[in-house]
Amino acid sequence: MNQMINRRALLRAAGATAVVSNMAAIDALSQPSFASELARGEKSVILLWLAGGASQLETWDPKPGRLTGGPFSKIQTCIPGVEISELLPKMSTRLDETAIIRSLNTKIGDHGQAYELMDRGRVGEPGVRFPHLGAIISHELGQIDSRVPDYVSMYTSTEGRRQGSAGFLGARYNPMFLTEKMMPENIGRHDAISQVDHQDRAALRDFLAKRFVRDLKNPSVHSHENAYERVHGLMACDYLFDIDKEPQSMRDHYGPTQFGQQCLIARRLVEAGVPFVKVARAWWDSHGQNFETHQELCADLDQCMSALLDDLKQRGLLEKTLVITLGEFGRTPQINGSLGRDHFANAWSCTLSGCGIRGGVVHGKTDEDGQSVVEGEMNAGDLFATIFAALGIEHDKEYMVGSRPVPLSDFGSTPCREVLA
Amino acid sequence: MTPDTLKKVSDWRFGDILFCVATDQQNDRIWFGSSDFHVYELNTSEEKPQRVAFEGDGHESYVTGLVRVGKALVSCGYDRRLVWWDIESKRSTRRTVAHDKWIRCVVASPDQSRLITVADDMQCKVWDATSGEMLASFSDHSALTPHHYPSMLYVVAASPDGRWIATGDRIGHVAIWDASSFEKVGELETPIMYTWDPKARRHSTGGIRSLSFSPDSRRLAVGGVGKIGNIDHLDGPARLEVFQWSTGTQALEREDNKKKGLIEQIVWSPDGKWILTAGGDNNGFVTIYDAESGELSHQDGQDGHIHAVAFDHDFSNFYAASHHRVTRWTIS
């Protein structure tokens, strides 16, 4: 085992500079030690992205009885003293692996800018293309010799589907992005090439490449070889996206909705070693009819999130898979003229479950009307630092972009130790 | 003949959201139900009326329906409860858990002997208005939408002759029932009112929000919203369909893009010549249509969605329960 990890670490160190095109150097200040590699060992992240911004008041931070609280009641959870919205009854019995953060104050209430903030953990700056969370995770946790994708993103509804970019980490860490279908396109073998021919071609290329590599000691040759290997790996892993291969009982557990199917695919992907999977469920932007929108979408979230946590737990995957439920912001305590709630980034909620997380914890507090954070305020950088810490990644580790050091989480951010196991 | 005038004459502002309104047949008192979980009385004949909250065991969520039966008011709410209130003492006299999910609407039979409720448990229930005993429970409405999300049963109407009950849901299905035997006697489909967006948003916000039988009980008006462009908002035309319900024949179809949003309430004129609709998006509207031609006769608007209207005894005034306000209009 140690030999395998050491080999991977060596491959990572050797291959890093070769696969990144627009950085002067990666990890120049902090070469990955074998110890940290061991600590990270094959961890994964599933991000349930609640696109458009779910209401904290109808999910994780209910305020029934207040004029801002809406019509729903709160329910007791399996954690004494912790109550959540009645719209999440299944999750109410499964909070022992989940930490609720009720004190996000991220200030930006515009979809585009808020998305960038919550996907990069920092405000953008001219001249620096910061990578998104999935790219960082795939860079930090991905295996250089992996035959499965490092970063899969499913975002199959709403306009302006936000792909996310690897930024200065380079295109190697961009997501496999699924927008129209749940099965990746163009990874199948061309019809004109038989399976035998396909294998023969691969064997010949492999033979020639190995001889070439032996004779020419150049990192870019390794990168070239690696790219071929990854393409073959992707072609061979299309079955991961095929939930027909799951028993009907498992599919029923996740439910028949597209979100449920995508969450099941996410489990299949992390089980196969994909380090970062993003499942975006649109569209929570409930300026009108907020309560009915949340009746509809929370039923989906409750079913799919609870099924995902159950499934990961039963397979022994939850202890090495971090499940994040997050959007770009929350929604206003004020209820507008069409029973809607508008964009609100000053006091909202997210959850972290599984890997590295102390379950049953509620961090932070908002005031009685949900207008502001009164305890434990966290910004996007703090949240990212917490995510990295849960995964055993040093949050203040620095990338070098040219001559500029850029820490993984924003300058000054700190992990929230209260929610870390 | 449609009215000559439609005029807004009074406006009382509050901080909460008002979902339902009932009027007194004798004087200027009105009652309404609120997002602060209370039922209130307002004497509109006073120069600066102050609303008075009813007391006792009331609701624990939004009060969404209110009907007068004799000397009592009966309210329903998202807390699944029906509450009986004595009008004079302004106190509750009975409270019962009536449904398993949100109650959306309560109406009285024309003789006021019965109450009829619908809720998101997709059941229509009939109650003895005096004793509170449940007399029947029935449904023709699926619990899930075709896309596997929770459906909602928004509205119920009783025919003026007391013979029929109609119920309407989120996916545009209407069932008509015999009010004595509780057997289904008809059904209608208004699929445009199910505003499922299969691609951009993958959810819906529409549904049948209002039903009303014509005075002769032969026609049934169905209100909701048409195809919504952006369902982040109620950005779709207010949609009205009228049926000869016994044959399923559509007699009228109207969409209004000028005043958008849901038609939350439909009222027929006593002679059946015109139809008043009210509702809105983030702004409210009141629209009067000729019941035969469908021609728009009058229209007015206001800030804030209108959730319900109720006419006074001589049909010259009506009150609208809205976002942060109660408004009185006159017609002549």
Automatic annotation (TrEMBL), chain A:
InterPro entries noted in UniProt: Alkaline_phosphatase_core_sf, DUF1501, TAT_signal
Keyword Signal among record annotations: yes
Keyword Magnesium: no
Lineage: superkingdom: Bacteria
UniProt keyword list: Signal
Signal peptide: 1-24
Name listed for the protein in its UniProt record: DUF1501 domain-containing protein
Species assigned in the record: Stieleria varia
Automatic annotation (TrEMBL), chain B:
UniProt domain Anaphase-promoting complex subunit 4-like WD40: residue ranges: 252-300
Organism (species): Stieleria varia
WD repeat locations: 96-137
Keyword terms, alphabetized: Repeat, WD repeat
Presence of the UniProt keyword Iron in the record: no
Name of the protein: WD domain, G-beta repeat
A Pfam family recorded for this sequence: WD40
Top-rank taxon, per record: Bacteria
